[in-house]
Amino acid sequence: MGQHNISSVAHLIAEPVRSVMLITLADGNAMSAGALAQAAGVTAQTASSHLAKLLDGGLLSVESKGRHRYYRLAGAHVSHVLESLASIGPVTPAWRNTPSRSAQALRFARCCYDHLAGQVGVAVTQSMLTRGFIVETGERQYALTAPGCEWLQQLGIDMGDAGFDHADHARRCLDWTERQYHVAGPLGARLMDAFLEWGWMQRSPTTRSVTVTALGWDGLNRHFGIARESCGPD
């Protein structure tokens, strides 16, 4: 049964149109069938067929608002699978040095479902490790330390209901462009929410990329020791 499930899911993800749709939804937002058809470069009828298969396969969920239907990933576990697949194999020099501004923006900072990824996400995680706010506790986990809890409270980040008592409150997520880990799980999501709420970062309305504002660079430098030039071009 498990082997059958793996082959079925792999078949769904492997189809190029469906893979584009899934990656487009990997920031956790919901999109209409029309928007996903445009992103994948197919007709509405073709998109509808692919979306039905992704729904049946458990990779997507759908909600109706009036006459419109909006699709999103079925959960963070689907995004984790997509990021893990993307991290297999080398990132070629051609991709790293691509002149494409959209590709550069994604590598610099992007949403990985509900948390921060890319060069900035890795830099934030490394800073927290260096300062002893988190520690590695296994192949897949970080753990928030007592100084880390105090630091978050000083920043004004509420920790009361975020599942920090669970062992997976700070998951290690392999960044597919940087080949280093960034922090995910409830802690990663809470940090991303705070960065957006404080006006440090802004999400693109059309892609997964994230822009760091002038206020954000000041905050990242002050609280994480991250300078703009240390993360590559914005």
Automatic annotation (TrEMBL):
CDD domains listed in its UniProt record: HTH_ARSR
Residue span, HTH arsR-type domain: 1-93
InterPro entries named among the record's database cross-references: ArsR-like_HTH, HTH_ArsR_DNA-bd_dom, HTH_Metal-responsive_Reg, WH-like_DNA-bd_sf, WH_DNA-bd_sf
Domain of life: Bacteria
Pfam families, sorted: HTH_20
Transmembrane spans: none
Range of residues in the leader sequence: none
UniProt-listed PANTHER family: TRANSCRIPTIONAL REGULATOR-RELATED, TRANSCRIPTIONAL REGULATORY PROTEIN
Record-given protein name: Helix-turn-helix transcriptional regulator
Organism: Paraburkholderia metrosideri
